Structures are given as structure tokens and as C-alpha cells.
UniProtKB/TrEMBL annotation:
Name listed for the protein in its UniProt record: Fumarylacetoacetate (FAA) hydrolase
Presence of the UniProt keyword Metal-binding in the record: yes
Residue stretches making up the Fumarylacetoacetase-like C-terminal domain: 30-229
Keyword entries, A-Z: Hydrolase, Metal-binding
Origin: domain of life: Bacteria
Molecular function per GO: acetylpyruvate hydrolase activity; metal ion binding
UniProt entry tagged with the keyword Lipid metabolism: no
Amino acid sequence: MSQATYVIAPLPQPALAVQGDSKMFPVRRIWCVGRNYLEHIRELGNDERNPPFFFAKHADMIAPDGATIPYPTLTKDFQHEVELVVALKSGGLNISADTALDHVFGYGVGVDLTRRDLQTISRKKEQPWEIGKSFDASAPCGALRPAAEIGHPAKGKIWLSVNGAERQSGDLSDMIWNTAEIIAKLSLQVELSAGDIIMTGTPAGVAALVPGDEVDCGIDGIGTLRVTIGEPT
């Protein structure tokens, strides 16, 4: 469609870089898995018997590798959560776990940035989490590695450091739900599609960030991501 079709100019398409390719991966939706590593469930004092669940961020909340992310408004407890990112090339409803990995384009490293104090208040009031999870630049993501090159990683160190000091460290094998199970479960809730990405949960070690912090993170065999926390805007 031409620009004249719209009453305002169409907004830019959010997208992720792909390692070794000049073409970008267009992002349709961002889905996040809550409570998918046992030690993280324990460190936040949640019931480890409850299964993980899903929440969403908006696609335009992505921030690229190397970005400076302003310290967000309204919070005094701004925390990091490093995660495996799964990018889908196709989708559907009621996908079986046996075929779920056929829908994966590739994998990357992301950070679910969280206004923890606001999330905690929402949880206590039994209100939605959006104020704590969905805000500008709250989904930094590195370049994707195609599954055609690296397969479907089920193990490998996942880590995050701040100013050179490691804070989070775990292994993909520690996930309560694996990638195929996550895709299958989410497809019961919503029809998945090409361009969807899924952030699959974080290991223990989440902690607060302050302006000036340099955040480095990575997953063995997949890639790395670096962002800087800037001053509030």
C-alpha cells in the first residue's frame, strides 16, 4: 500500500539483525515466558509448583545490540533478566511439541528489562504486569543465529555481567519447559505466526541496574549482547 492509504505515515517495522546476513528479521509480536528457571522462581519467593505462563511486550520495544537505554520512568528498582530468544518463521494454532521446532527460524540473546517494584505492586493487587514489563526499550535483543546453521540448542551456558562482574549464570538445560514445549503451549493460547519472537525465561541472579552500567550477556553457541544504561530522559 502507498503512504497515501493511511491518515498518518506508517510506523517503521521493528526488526532484528541476522548474523552473517544483510537482511533483517521482521518482528511481529514479542511473547515472554514467566518463571521458567527453578532458581529464579525461588529467588523471587514464588511458588515453584506453578507452571510458567506468558505475557507480552510490544514489538517496538526492541533495542539493538550496542544501544544506550535510558533509565526508565516511575521505577526505583530497574532489573535485568537475560533470556534465550526464539524467532519463528511460521506458526499456527495447536502446534504439537513434536513439530514445534519446524517453525523456528533461529535463536538469539535478549534481556527482559523489568521495573521490578512496579511489577511487584501489580502482582500484589492482582493487576496486569504491563507497567512493570512493557515500556520503551525494555526488550534488547542481539543478532539471530539461524537454526539452519546451529540446530536447536538445548544446553549451553547463559550468562549476564554488569561492569565486568557476572551476576546471572545458568544453562539452557535448566529450563523447566524446553523450546518445543513453550511453542506448543503458547499456540494453545494464541495463533503464532512468522515474525513472532519468544523470550524463554531467565536464570537466577536478577538484580538492579543504575545509569552508567555496562551490561554484557550471552549464550554459548548463539551470541552475545551489550547495552549501556543511560540517564533518565
